[in-house]
Design goal:
2 copies of one chain form a homodimer.
Chain A: E1 8-14, E2 19-28, E3 37-41, E4 51-56, H1 65-74, E5 85-93, H2 95-98, H3 102-112, H4 115-120, E6 127-132, E7 142-148, H5 153-164, E8 172-182
Chain lengths: ~180, ~180
């Protein structure tokens, strides 16, 4: 039975799209087929790509009220004209992660790994959006999307490098790093 | 663009299915079209129903480790031969609920409403499964499914009555109560 998820955003890799793919590198596990471009589409849009990744911008899972208040002050939305660099990092976490309780996951995510506090240091330079994919039956659990200006590329590498060194990342069993430039 | 969610369970209302619908009553908001029977299907199964509700059995959001340990000891799986009574209660919560943080939702869910502790009193008599629907773009946020023996029908009414009286239920903006009997 087919269905259309009206909440989903689609990342479509193929011959067309506003974003030119410069790097498509598997970090952990299997990669994605090589394509020239990426389109970011809403559910009602038709696409003819080679692959499609779907995710939903959902309610917050880990951010607490004081963190949310700080984030709302400091973060910028997607689509800034000078943010011509993009990164799409699809991630799958292990069954062990998903068998943890919420408080155990929050403990690894923030108390041990400082995911929120550390990422906050890179705002507003790095704009980002998290899309949830696991409950959609997708191959990845999350699609993380980032936008930044070329002058902030070094800071973005620092942010990604830090995340990959955390306790949280020990639960990542598949990760792909796509880097893009907007036309 | 169409998709098949391999994680989803489908509740299909129509002319066929193992479960005969005895009650189909809107509690809050708009109801569902009247149908004779309900089928519970996996994604690859074809159906020709009047309506289909989809949900995913997902990772835990609110249950903490000690609660999970107690639940695992005391709860029974679905499908017990003598559990010929079923209840499907689809629920939608308000945007206000979804704008809360995890800890704020947990506070209302358990500290104020005792959702887990109170429901535990009805185990193993009432077997239940929660399906998440919100991120699937469905009209409901949750599909709650219960199975019990006819002799425990009174206890089930008590459980449902308690849940509807809680602080948590003030955030429910649509609710339908379907009662079923298995052939």
């Amino acid at each position: 039975m087919t269905e259309v998820n009206q909440r989903a955003t689609m990342f479509v890799g193929g011959a067309t799209g506003n974003w030119k793919i410069k790097v498509n590198q598997p970090i952990i596990g299997e990669g994605l087929p090589s394509v020239a471009r990426l389109s970011i589409l809403s559910p009602e849009q038709q696409s003819t790509g080679i692959w499609t990744l779907r995710g939903v911008s959902s309610y917050v899972r880990y951010v607490e009220r004081d963190e949310m208040t700080k984030l709302q002050v400091v973060q910028d939305p997607l689509g800034r004209p000078d943010s011509t660099c993009g990164a799409l990092i699809p991630i799958q976490k292990s069954q062990e992660w998903w068998d943890l309780t919420q408080e155990e996951r929050r403990n690894i995510f923030e108390t041990q790994s400082h995911h929120i506090a550390n990422s906050m240091k890179y705002l507003p330079a790095i704009a980002r959006q998290l899309y949830h994919s696991r409950d959609l039956g997708e191959p990845f659990d999350f699609l993380t999307w980032f936008e930044y200006a070329p002058k902030d590329a070094g800071r973005f590498e620092e942010l990604v490098g830090h995340l990959r060194s955390t306790e949280e990342w020990k639960y990542v069993i598949r990760e792909i790093d796509l880097r893009l430039v907007r036309d």
